[in-house]
Amino acid sequence: MPEDTQDINSPLSPPMPDENKTVPPDLGVAQSSTNQDPPSTDTSLPSSDSNPPARIPDPPVQKPDPPTQSFSPSGEQDTIKTDPVASSSTTIDPIAPSVSPVVATTDNTSGQGSSAVVPEEVKGWSWGGFLLSWIWAVGNSVWIGLIALVPYVGFVMSIILGIKGREWAWQAKRYESVEQFKKTQHKWDMWSIVLALLIIPATIFIMILIVIVAINPVGRIKEADAAKVNSDVREVGTAISACIANQTAMGVSADQTYSKSAWDASTKKGGCADSATLIQGNYISLIPSGITITTGTSKICAYKATGNEPTLYASWDSNQRQVVTSPNGTTTCN
Known about the structure:
9% strand; rod-shaped
């Protein structure tokens, strides 16, 4: 077979056109009126010494617009379809809605009971709980604060409310935010301090008045003066009584005994109404201040006048000692 002739039946090479040969009807393609070559539809395998034929292209399809890329809040890449019909239910908004309101609502644990987590901004000392105790507790629904009404433990509960009150208040009532809670507690703190500055001094003043009335210093002073007068007069009276008894035993006459005769150191005799006789005779060490000693018929009296009490008298004779109380200005010994 000549070299320029190829077997058309060979599966390894495409058919070669022959200008001198007529193309069979079943292999020919009618030429268009525009004399353009029609697209090849030959599907025979290429020969080993030629480039492989291009793949028969698919029918032309209208390409969609390129998709727009976006990222969701989670960081994953989403493809937004541009088909107006299909995008009605599947289109993802490239501007994701903010999730901060959901987070804020989740973090607001106020009013959720004792198991709720308390934010650090809420914790701190509560002047309202400490100074107003049970009043603050009722206003903030912290019912454990009513223990402050119990005697003896109320002050301890007030200290506990000062330490833990803000946390309990957050857990007991619902607040829109931490800021609202802090503003509310600030008002309680301010009012408690103002009331404390007004009530505490008034309370102290009232307590002082109660103590003064209970003590009754004026009455106590009068009682002390009367007791002092009575003690002084009785002390002198005891000395006079001892002198009368001793002088009578020594045979001293009644006129000398119930007189103010001067003390005779040699005979140890003297009038028992004489202060020197009472002291030198060792009947008394010192006559109390304000004591007056006077004499009567067979009687010696001692008295002490004060500005608060009636004059107190003590009168003695050889048989008895008598203590009487009489109005001021009475100085008669009888």
